[in-house]
Specification:
The protein is α+β, with helices and mostly antiparallel strands. It has a single domain, classed as Pnp Oxidase, Chain A (Roll), CATH 2.30.110. Helices cover 25% and strands 40% of the residues. It has helices at 14-23, 63-70, 111-123, 131-139, and strands at 26-32, 38-44, 46-48, 53-58, 73-79, 83-84, 91-106, 144-159. Strands 1, 2, 3, 4, 5, 6, 7 and 8 form an eight-stranded antiparallel sheet that branches. Helix 3 (111-123) packs across helix 4 (131-139). It is globular and about 50 Å long.
Length: 161
């Protein structure tokens, strides 16, 4: 079903893929949009180490939500900041592509999971331990969370040269 990586010598281990998902703040979510056109957009995400799923949140309506309601298949791509070898101009970048299924849920349906997602996300952006709970108290009823169950994931190291 999923292709093997063509440039397999550049493949990174699953453990490195998970580290990238855990540590990077943003990725590109791609869905099957209207009339079959792909639709990709940047989203801030949280990787839950306990269950191996990717989470993000947003509004209850919009293009990506409509697309995921029509077809729950998604891909999610994340890349790190990269590094340069000493004396080299070329950037070395590690990237991860995960294919999976999206499931949406709200605070009314799963309040504890919504809180976990919001706390996990906010920890990537602020050191304020109360931030997520304060925001949930204000706008929690309007939040839609998305859970991606990963079906297939690969990562690779690419040198720009």
């Amino acid at each position: 079903m999923f292709r093997k990586m063509r440039r397999f010598k550049q493949q990174i281990p699953q453990e490195e893929c998970i580290e990238i998902l855990k540590n990077e703040k943003r990725g590109v979510l791609s869905v099957i949009g209207e009339d079959g056109y792909p639709y990709g957009m940047p989203v801030s995400h949280w990787y839950n180490e306990e269950n191996g799923k990717i989470y993000f949140h947003g509004a209850k309506t919009g293009h990506k939500i409509d697309a995921m309601r029509a077809d729950d298949r998604v891909s999610f791509c994340v890349m790190d900041e990269g590094y340069r070898e000493e004396g080299d101009w070329a950037l070395n970048i590690k990237s991860v592509v995960a294919f999976g299924r999206a499931r949406m849920f709200t605070y009314d349906e799963e309040p504890e999971l919504v809180r976990d997602v919001c706390v996990g996300l906010s920890a990537k952006f602020t050191e304020d331990p109360n931030y997520a709970d304060d925001e949930i108290a204000k706008v929690g009823k309007n939040v839609l969370c998305v859970e991606i169950t990963i079906d297939h994931m690969t990562g690779k190291l690419v040198n720009e040269a």
